[in-house]
């Protein structure tokens, strides 16, 4: 019977393996978009399109400032860098810096329409009847030392409104100037030349990142002394992040793997237990992956990573089983019989815990629930069905130190004379936690969760300062029934934004037809009619040239066709859907409030959205934690009675409750990642307590097994507390403190049955 | 000329017009200080009076203004037009500010002006008696008390703004004529020039900050 079940399980595992292998042959359908974790109904296709386009526009580019004390060197090196990267096939040969010819075309497109074009400040003055101020400005430029005093221009634009309009265009990087065809800025004796690069590959593909950075560094290596470069681009951040994560995970991973292997080998002095433990986890992973692919069609990478760590708990069952080699039981069946109730109950409570994750509307957590639930059952079946058949490990003597320590921990929890110590320790723990309670702060800011490379952040800020880039990640989406309506809505939005932030909108480059008509009337009525005659008389100026006004108002298509404003293309997603970008933003809340209620205008805050998502997930995880605790109680009550169930739940519950305030004392914020670790702490802690509760003799072997389980958990998760990435560090630190607490408190569960 | 491109030229001029006049102005300052046998050094203050005449097509008579100026090498220029329209222009390495009756009418950051910063380099070079910086952009010919400057490249930004500059030298520069490609001409005549007669006063120091 047992053999045929084991065989059946083998067939199932093989089938799952084949299933996964077949899909993997065509590339595993892994999802990596963090937004894919959001519930479907919250994803607006318009917002999604806008976000995708903005990400593409930003991530597909890189900006480098090349600086040198000698202008000629800086310029030559800027050309060399671009050339090097183009030759290596890493960036596209085209550039988004407009040619002189394109700028000329832009002038030619604007000039005939000048009657309808006004700088925003000039428009406001005319609206307020302050035409006099514009007359004074024109006079000061004509009589002053420098100015627009050019007879051909004055004949067509007597008040010099057109240069004022051009000067007011919100071109990005407004500190840069075209110096002989190259955007440059001189700062503190250094000439900086901007190199704007359009990437020829996928910025988030690891391979492309590596090749790009290698190419970039090779170009740098040939640079003359004194050359400085500043980098800005998603690729650089992503590469640094991946580099750090890989370096870190290979270091932490190596220590963790080596430590776990050494621990298991040293503890059991044979390779069998190690191989079988690995088999238990591997079978769990394979079956979980297969079921997830069959159910969801794809696996989210976050679900896979987190689910895999949940399945890792299964190693505890293997360790508990192999702990039996320190007992006189030599027959595998006897060993299994001894631990079967404990691991069955442990598995069931853990599956309940994970299953509650599936109750959430978040597709990500559903996947985690299915993935880890199935995997855990798979690993459990391997332990129960295969271990007795494959286990050849001989009985061994429990090392004396371990035996002594275990017996001591049992006694502390079991013997009356330690009552005072127990109470004191618990009170101290509670007081410490109470002290930390006031210092708990929620930490959902996604920017703090990522480990952005500090030197790159510094370079980015320096570039922003030098070049005048100040674009924030927040932007507006403006929708309408027609292009004209969109432009009009952008003008309404602009009136609300004035004074709060800088902004770039298509309407600032091409006013709506309505606005153009209003501007022309405004100039006629508030400037030309009251002031032109006196102005001309004062200067002795001939009658202005009366060019025939154009038949059509200035059109967005006409301006875009000049090719002089490439970034305008990124603002126009379609005729009826535009993006308005922001810069110099200091108060997002004020912007949000003052722009509320505008038709067709929506503020999008991608980082804020991710932060909100993390907060929602954190709340959800906390609620689920409570639900799963409650759901475990009936099962435990069935086995231990209500009172016993409470005693068994108590260690894990205490660990879950005490860990966040204790970490707060150490200055760690509470994030979604910490909350997820608590889900694990609850499951692991309940397992430990169940294993202790199942042991009626207070056998040191039990605590040694649980201690081994804790050690492997600390090696695989606790070490993550050393990570540079805040999210990973929070997870690791929570595991570290929570699991240790759960272990130390676990023997208390045995008291009722002792 | 193709009418479609006429606007382009206008626009280009519009964009570069500020730069142009500054080029002209600084070029003359540079000459003003470099024309002397011994060059000016930082700390010197040159004061004088000017007459500026703008000969422009479509105007009955030249636009004439009169006033005083102060040049402080390394710090900048204060150009006070007094009649017929009082407007003060202050040029420093940071940029250009114009004001009428104390109220600012125009402000241009040097960062937005393509040539200003380079021209400061040129000026610094010329102050040290090094004409090569200037000769990078202009062909310089001296005949007697006259210096003529012509843009070297026919197609670059300088040539789009300036057809030529002629300078008449005395102890300091006495007259500068700047001819533009469209036939407009600015004539600046300097009188009463004195070196280091009075240091910068508090108001002037504040303007050149």
Give a verbal description of the structure.
- The complex is a heterodimer of chains A (754) and B (209).
- With 754 residues, chain A is an alpha+beta fold.
- In chain A, 65% of the residues lie in helices and 8% in strands.
- Chain A has 29 helices and twelve strands.
- In chain A, the strands form three sheets. A five-stranded antiparallel β-sheet of chain A has the order 3-4-5-2-6, sandwiched between helices. In chain A, strands 8, 9, 10, 11 and 12 form a five-stranded antiparallel β-sheet that branches. A two-stranded parallel ribbon of chain A has the order 1-7.
- In chain A, a hairpin with a 2-residue loop joins strand 10 and strand 11.
- In chain A, helix 3 runs antiparallel to helix 9 (206-221) and helix 13 packs parallel to helix 15 (363-390).
- Chain B is of the alpha+beta class and 209 residues long.
- Chain B has five helices and eleven strands, in the order αββββββααββαβββα.
- Chain B has helices spanning 3-34, 116-127, 132-137, 157-161, 202-207, and strands at residues 46-55, 63-72, 76-83, 87-92, 95-100, 103-109, 138-143, 146-151, 164-169, 173-179, 185-195.
- In chain B, strands 6-5-4-3-2-1-11-10-9-8-7 form an eleven-stranded antiparallel β-sheet.
- In chain B, helix 1 packs parallel to helix 2 (116-127).
- Chain B starts with a helix and ends with a helix.
- Residues 1-24, 30-38 and 114-130 of chain B have low confidence and may be disordered.
- Chains A and B meet through helix 4, helix 6, helix 7, helix 8 and strand 3 of A and helix 1, strand 3, strand 4 and strand 5 of B.
